[in-house]
Predict the structure.
Amino acid sequence: MKLTAHRGVKSLAPENTLSAVRKAAELGVEWIEVDVQCTAEGVAVVFHDRVLGRCTDGSGVLSETHWEQLARLDAGSWFSDEYIGERVPAFEQLLTHVRQLGLAVNVEIKCYRETDVEALCAEIIAVVERVGLAEDHLLISSFSREALEYCLAHIPSVRRGILYESLPDNWEEDLRLKPYSIHCNHETLTKEQAAEIKAKNLELQCFTVNSPARTLQLESWGVDRIITDCPQMLMPVQESPLTA
Ligand code: G3P
Ligand code: MG
């Protein structure tokens, strides 16, 4: 089973930070997933939540916060004292780091109700073009069809993954987005749905899987890759005689 480290290795370092990216490199996990949003003035930054309180010492809505304020916040002490002083990375910083470490990244375009989807996508694309990460080291994913449509129109050569909390009956209508991969919440995916997706020759990814037994079951359903908080726990699964 192929592994992607969710928000960097979020079980070992504060999620979506440069330290979480470095943990993946230390473990030998090539792929990470991160979430990207824009600040009030349109700087693309790596952050999951709509609001700042859980993962920083700040408060308020990220998209109403300016970069200058955000860059001063502590994004590590909530996780442990070892990470006091960790910052919310600009997407460009993180992507540069990914390239320097030889990693690959699934960039989730994170859209909330007030997100200016076009502006966010345009900024992400501008950063991707500036950093020049090899296209086979990059995947763009989103729950937002609008975001994926924008990426198809403006950067069609970068692969797209469609995210589903639960696969709808009419999911094949989304094939107009020309996805490379389909990403399903493993808690709602059925064996039959996995077979349908694989019959379309699409890569099938599941999030967020943290159990070795479930990983083996999903593998038997044809799932190609899991997105996990704990790659350190699941890596032995890759070498298990059960999967040989
Ligand atoms: O990429 C899958 C996963 O990251 C989607 O959920 O909320 O962790 O961004 P979330
Ligand atoms: Mg995500």
About this structure: Residues 6, 33, 35, 48, 108, 141, 163, 183, 207, 227 surround SN-glycerol-3-phosphate (ligand 1) (CB under 6 Å). The CA atoms of residues 9 and 20 lie 5 Å apart. Helices lie at 18-27, 67-70, 91-101, 117-131, 145-154, 191-199, 212-220, 231-239. The chain has one domain: 2-239.
